[in-house]
Amino acid sequence: MAVPTIAVVGRPNVGKSTLFNRLAGKPLAIVDDRPGVTRDRREARGRLGDIPLRIIDTAGFDDADATRLGTDMRAQTDAALREADVCLFVIDAREGITALDQAFGDVIRRSGKPVILIANKAEGRAGVDGITESYALGFGEPVAISASHGEGMGDLHARLTQELGDFDRLDDDREDEPPLRIAVIGRPNAGKSTLINALIGEDRLITGPEAGVTRDAIAVDWLWDGQRVRLHDTAGLRKKGKVNDRLERMSAADTLRAIKFAEVVLLLVDAEHPFEKQDLTLADLVLREGRALVMVLAKWDLVPNRQAALKELQYEFERLLPQAKGAPLVPVSALKNKGLEDIMPAVTRLHRDWSAKIKTRDLNDWLQEMVSRHPPPAVQGKRIKPRYLSQTKSRPPTFVLMCSRAADLPESYKRYLINGIREAFDMPGVPIRLIVKGGK
Ligand code: GDP
Ligand code: GDP
């Protein structure tokens, strides 16, 4: 398992959301407590020490005075349990065990999932009686924590390590890694400000002005789905005002600046009018600048027959932009808060491939095969001989081909090699540069 999934379950008011927020890291953009936001949003990436986590919350039911396990609660809990590798069953140590806790205990037991019993609100010496009582639930020794004060997280870490099988631990120096730089571009009205607002939320989540690459290009840092990101702040994002005033209309110069700033560019297209000339021009510009391109199909709620539409759009995209073959297409509705959680996984996957370094030996084994399968055409009776291929840099991956009669190597052959590299070394959607040099 790469990233373990945990479900946070239990009756209302025991502190599930508080625990969720703590594990998700900072007050996350996507864990917002404005009405209608948290309610739909029950999943986030986070970490506990070196354990990466996908966390599913079940705080969607809004009935703090509920005394019985209603159908809604039941359905949500079951759904969360189904996806979980480990269940965190939260009780309120100060209140002790209630009938509703018992009812939840039964549901959880029936799921057959590994369970860690969490006795919350146990800061200081509080909740000792509740902790003792909780053994009666039959899940063994509880982990006493305080979600709001952050106590007991070391014990929780130890228990999670026990319960989880294999997973990829996070590097501890990750905090020092520079954040991933992202820009959001698109033609006017594509839905950029609505998306950014849905992601970042209100001003409280903006951690303060950070000096950007230039005087007028400023960045906003935040934690997005467990990943530190620096978002190019297209002029005005931080200004107070109505949602629609936030992001000033981007000029061509702004757009270029945003692209140059970014490692990964989110290009928003209006899914109702996708891939218009300007969209294609922008996509091409992103790739020519060597940036990783994620296509976001905005306003997806307005599209009928979504499944068929997505297939059609994928096909259209590859036809219109063969140079972007394999770039991810992510349908979202910022207005309905749907699909936003799919953006970051696409971004990190692409960013990883965009940063890849390929061994020279592997490249040359591959080159030999490609050339013997399909040699370059002869020019005036003389063969062009590709001799040696190496990667000179990444971000974007840049290769140098040493070749006799370099000037005569046709563009189509370069494309053959570029597409081949992308396919053989599994870097779909990554812009690749190939420089051809003469020499023996
Ligand atoms: P949920 O309904 O289970 O998601 O519970 P919430 O996370 O919304 O918390 C319910 C209440 O308990 C809130 O008022 C929290 O501030 C409070 N709470 C959560 N965790 C703790 C804790 O560790 N200690 C104390 N004293 N209060 C907590
Ligand atoms: P920008 O110019 O690219 O920043 O676009 P805006 O974010 O200002 O959005 C342009 C228009 O599209 C506004 O009227 C938004 O309300 C609308 N819009 C944005 N996102 C969505 C969405 O997900 N669904 C729908 N139906 N409309 C949206």
From TrEMBL:
Gene Ontology terms, MF aspect: hydrolase activity
Gene3D superfamilies listed in its UniProt record: 3.30.300.20, P-loop containing nucleotide triphosphate hydrolases
UniProt cross-references to HAMAP family, sorted A to Z: GTPase_Der (MF_00195)
Entry binding sites for GTP 2: G186, R187, P188, N189, A190, G191, K192, S193, D233, T234, A235, G236, L237
Protein encoded by which gene: der
Domain EngA-type G residues, every copy: 4-168, 180-355
Family matches, as SUPFAM superfamilies: P-loop containing nucleoside triphosphate hydrolases
Function field: GTPase that plays an essential role in the late steps of ribosome biogenesis.
Signal peptide: none
The keyword Lipid metabolism is assigned to this record: no
Name of this chain's protein: GTPase Der
Binding partners and assembly: Associates with the 50S ribosomal subunit.
Keyword Nucleotide-binding: yes
Domain of life, source organism: Bacteria
Keywords: GTP-binding, Hydrolase, Nucleotide-binding, Repeat, Ribosome biogenesis
Record-stated family: Belongs to the TRAFAC class TrmE-Era-EngA-EngB-Septin-like GTPase superfamily. EngA (Der) GTPase family.
Residues given in the record as GTP 1 binding sites: 10-17, 57-61, 120-123
InterPro entries according to UniProt: G_ENGA, GTP-bd, GTPase_Der, KH_dom-like, KH_dom-like_a/b, P-loop_NTPase, Small_GTP-bd
